[in-house]
Write a structure and sequence with these properties.
Blueprint lengths: L8 E9 L2 H11 L20 E4 L5 H10 L15 E8 L1 H6 L3 H19 L5 E7 L5 H7 L7 E6 L2 E7 L13 E8 L1 H4 L3 E2 L17 E2 L1 H15 L6 E2 L11 H54 L3 H5 L3 E2 L5 E2 L2 H58 L1 H21 L4 H4 L2 E2 L1
Parallel strand pairs: 1-10, 9-13
Antiparallel strand pairs: 1-3, 2-4, 3-5, 4-5, 6-7, 8-9, 11-12
Amino acid sequence: MARNDGIDRTFARNQDLPTLDDVAKVQEHNEREKDSYSNQDIDTTQTYRNIHFKAPTDSYAAMFDQMIADGVISTRGLKADAVKYGELIFDVNSAYFHNHGGYEYAKQFYTDAYKAAVEIVGGEQYILSAVMHADERNRAMSEALGQDVYHYHLHVVYIPVVEKQILWSKRCKDKALVGTVKETIMQVSRSKKWESKVALDEQGNPLLTSKGKKVLRTSYSVLQDDFFNYMKAAGYTDVERGERGSTEEHLTVTQFKVAQEQQRLEDVTAQIAQTEQALDTAQAAVEKKQKELQSLQKQTKEQRTTALTVQEIRSMGKKAITGNITLTPSECSTLKDYAVNGILAKAENSRLEEKLQSAQKSAAVWKQRYESLKEQARPYLEAVKLAPEKVRAFLDAILTLTRQTKQHNQPSRRKSQDMEL
């Protein structure tokens, strides 16, 4: 995968296929046996460009059984739950092939990479399938460059075997043969195939820790070295070895893509969270303004009801013979109070009317902002609404895989002291 740091690196990964279900899924993916894929990076219109350096003659499981029947491999002494299949994945960041001409250059590179795979596995007869995928888009580079960029990589499904000598036992009638080699078999053994090796110094002597223990090089580190050295010897001197200690050298292509998609999903989730928060803020502001508006309307109504009606005012006083209006002391006092209150109410009503208009304008602005944010968030909210279970399942799968990957790549403290990547 493209690292975007200007350095091209080789990566060699080995993953176990512990169950027949795992084997079937890998076969389905590698051989493109499905009509459609949930992985949006797979462009089925380009699948015809995939190249088999060794095509399977049957299902992986059926080929395994046939190899046993033909005596090519042996499962003698193998536990029922032992790992019998493995997959090697070789790749270089997408930018490397893009900058060297793309597809044709990738074909030659992986032709040579397949030769390295044959040596690493121990012989072509132990390889079930070897296919270069040329139909998986590198989404990030494609979006950045405005054109389709494909991530070329090689899948090699194989049987991990080691040579084992079977000795004549004490029950042999010819006592002279006891302890000598009876036969040599190619035993299926994942653990022995990928045993850690002792690190050597320049003179070929074992490297030792401060406590005198031998320093071990993990099998994955040896795999990285072997692939890099082979490709360098084949003339590819413009690439570097995958970083030592990097978790990338232990990740499969699928796992690495999941990590990328998890980051993409986290970004989208963050955007949704921010939008939802903005929506909540806007909604709260609208509700607050609406409450203020209702309060002002109530105050205005109360102030208006305190004023005298026209009929009440006109009914006060009596007209004298002289034409003057006479008021009783009580009416005069009441009218004065109402007059003062009326003037105060008019001033207060004027102030409240201005505040009411301002609140109405503010509420309209917040409502407009709320509707705008709601429209921006609509695609995200609809996606979550339409497929909540799928989103939850996808997140759970990513988090589970990420935790498993981290646990797999964290050796114990004591063991790490004796291991060298």
